């Protein structure tokens, strides 16, 4: 059985929602995958609704549900690699394939262990490369966060640039080194190929913060609009999709 006791991090994120209003006020959302519409059940605790196109809707039981999510509320997000559905807040997920083929045995909740998983909440996961992107609340009133990028079961933050959590600064994390969230908590993404990460809004401009980072080189990605017909935003999206390389898009890396 999975122990899903309410942790301090979860409480901080719940306060963050109430105080800052940075996460969409609607406690339920719908995600779509190949004409399947998935959402947490508004009435039954520990159930997820799956509607296949205009056809039948089924309610699938989630095993090991806990009082953390007692009333059935909560936001969910499909990982960029389309392997799992994350449940907010915390570090738990359900496998997408198991969800789409749900039967009377219900769904299992799985946990990912990563650096500082006890004080953060998952934003995206890349299972092939065993990468977890998570956020830590720095200031609930100001609505600011810092990012964690960690390998599964490892105890370090891969990146240490501006906007990323630094253990050495615990208690002294500055507001200028933290970023605010828009209406979507799950806006941060790991690229499809696991080479790049964007902790917040996708932005590859020279003054972006926190911007898009090359995970291996530990440097920030920058494009300009002087090379070719594509805009910076378009180049950034193509890079994150894995369809073209940084060199092909004529980008550069900066410290």
The structural class is mainly beta
Task: Name the beta content range.
Answer: 25-35%
Rg is: 18 Å
Q: How does the overall form come out from the CA principal axes?
A: globular
Q: Number of helical segments?
A: 3
Task: Let me know the largest β-sheet.
Answer: 5 strands, antiparallel
Question: Residue-averaged pLDDT, rounded?
Answer: 84
List keywords for this structure.
255 residues; mainly beta; 2 domains; 3 helices; 28% strand
Would you write up a description of this structure?
By secondary structure, the chain is mostly beta strands. It has two domains: 8-180, no CATH class; 191-255, no CATH class. The protein is 11% helix and 28% strand. It has helices at 8-20, 96-100, 232-241, and strands spanning 31-33, 36-40, 47-52, 57-61, 76-78, 84-87, 92-95, 110-111, 121-126, 131-139, 144-151, 179-180, 189-190, 196-198, 213-214, 219-222, 252-254. The strands form four sheets. It has a five-stranded antiparallel beta sheet, with no helix packed on it. Strands 1-2-3-4 form a four-stranded antiparallel beta sheet, with no helix packed on it. The chain is globular, with a radius of gyration of 18 Å. Residues 1-9 and 14-25 have low confidence and may be disordered.
Topology (SSEs and partners):
Layout: H1 8-20, E1 31-33, E2 36-40, E3 47-52, E4 57-61, E5 76-78, E6 84-87, E7 92-95, H2 96-100, E8 110-111, E9 121-126, E10 131-139, E11 144-151, E12 179-180, E13 189-190, E14 196-198, E15 213-214, E16 219-222, H3 232-241, E17 252-254
Antiparallel strand pairs: 1-2, 2-3, 3-4, 5-6, 6-7, 7-8, 9-10, 10-11, 11-12, 13-14, 14-15, 15-16, 16-17
């Amino acid at each position: 059985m999975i122990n899903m006791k309410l942790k301090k991090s979860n409480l901080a994120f719940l306060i963050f929602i109430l105080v800052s209003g940075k996460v969409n006020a609607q406690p339920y959302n719908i995600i779509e995958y190949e004409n399947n519409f998935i959402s947490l059940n508004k009435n039954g605790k520990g159930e997820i609704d799956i509607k296949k196109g205009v056809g039948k809707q089924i309610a699938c039981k989630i095993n090991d549900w806990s009082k953390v999510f007692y009333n059935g509320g909560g936001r969910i997000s499909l990982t960029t690699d389309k392997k799992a559905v994350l449940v907010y807040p915390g570090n738990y997920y359900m496998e997408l394939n198991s969800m789409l083929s749900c039967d009377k045995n219900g769904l299992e909740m799985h946990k990912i262990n990563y650096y500082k998983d006890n004080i953060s909440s998952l934003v995206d996961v890349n299972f092939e490369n065993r990468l977890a992107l998570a956020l830590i609340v720095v200031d609930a009133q100001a609505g600011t966060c810092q990012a964690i990028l960690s390998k599964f079961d490892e105890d370090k933050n891969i990146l240490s640039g501006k906007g990323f959590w630094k253990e050495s600064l615990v208690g002294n994390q500055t507001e200028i080194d933290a970023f605010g969230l828009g209406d979507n908590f799950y806006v941060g993404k790991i690229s499809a190929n696991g080479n790049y990460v964007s902790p917040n809004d996708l932005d590859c401009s020279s003054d972006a913060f926190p911007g898009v980072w090359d995970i291996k080189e530990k440097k920030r990605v920058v494009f300009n609009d002087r090379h070719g017909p594509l805009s910076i935003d378009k180049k950034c999206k193509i890079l994150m999709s894995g369809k073209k390389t940084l060199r092909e898009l004529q980008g550069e890396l900066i410290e």
